[in-house]
């Protein structure tokens, strides 16, 4: 299971439209371009990972659902109790894979930046409870090169097949 928040999660961002008080899913959208991502995940006593990268986000990937981002974390992850908050959503992150996790999470975003915070608990080795926290911060850093756009567009096209 990928414990660090993947770059896919970093696609979560801005302009969250308010909907019903509680929904099955939420959708966010950001400006395409080159994004700086900083991510950290901690499972107290077991894992402490940090990651930072620069990535080109094409227009086709600038709008995404929370459920898709949870699946980017792990195929066995889902979202529940999604509710609009100022500038984003609050939600429950539930992962039932090798490392079961239940976390309260928030996403706050604009078209040029976003912040994800999650805190909860995990069950390690099938029976050991542990605290979990995950943080992701992203910001628009500029424009992608034409080569980066072509590469990411081809990758997106292959994912759609």
Short description:
This protein is α+β, with helices and mostly antiparallel strands and 161 residues long. The chain has helices at 7-10, 66-73, 146-160; strands at residues 27-29, 33-43, 47-57, 63-65, 77-85, 88-95, 101-109, 113-124, 128-142.
Fold blueprint:
Elements: H1 7-10, E1 27-29, E2 33-43, E3 47-57, E4 63-65, H2 66-73, E5 77-85, E6 88-95, E7 101-109, E8 113-124, E9 128-142, H3 146-160
Antiparallel strand pairs: 1-4, 2-3, 2-9, 5-6, 6-7, 7-8, 8-9
Structural account:
The protein has 161 residues and is α+β, with helices and mostly antiparallel strands. The chain has one domain. The protein is built from three helices and nine strands. The strands form two sheets. Strands 3-2-9-8-7-6-5 form a seven-stranded antiparallel beta sheet. Strands 1-4 form a two-stranded antiparallel ribbon.
Class by SSE composition: alpha+beta
The coarse silhouette is globular
Q: N-to-C SSE series?
A: HEEEEHEEEEEH
Largest sheet: 7 strands, antiparallel
Query: Average pLDDT value?
Result: 83
Cα gyration radius (Å): 16 Å
Stretches where pLDDT is under 50 for at least 5 consecutive residues are 1-21
Instruction: Supply the number of structural domains.
Output: 1
Percent of residues in helices comes to 10-25%
Strand arrangement, major sheet: 3-2-9-8-7-6-5
Distance between the termini: 24 Å
The number of strands is: 9
Strand content: over 45%
């Amino acid at each position: 299971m990928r414990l660090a928040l993947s770059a896919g999660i970093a696609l979560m961002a801005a302009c969250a439209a308010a909907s019903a008080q509680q929904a099955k899913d939420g959708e966010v959208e950001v400006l395409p371009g080159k994004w700086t991502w900083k991510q950290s995940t901690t499972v107290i006593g077991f894992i402490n990972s940090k990651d930072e990268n620069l990535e080109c986000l094409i227009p086709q990937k600038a709008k995404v659902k929370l459920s898709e981002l949870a699946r980017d974390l792990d195929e066995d992850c889902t979202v529940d109790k999604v509710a609009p908050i100022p500038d984003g959503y609050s939600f429950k992150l539930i992962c039932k894979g090798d490392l079961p996790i239940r976390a309260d999470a928030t996403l706050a975003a604009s078209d040029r930046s976003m912040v994800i915070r999650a805190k909860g608990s995990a069950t390690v080795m099938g029976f050991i409870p542990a605290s979990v926290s995950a943080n992701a911060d992203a910001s628009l850093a500029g424009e992608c090169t034409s080569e980066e756009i072509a590469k990411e567009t081809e990758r997106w096209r292959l994912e759609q097949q």
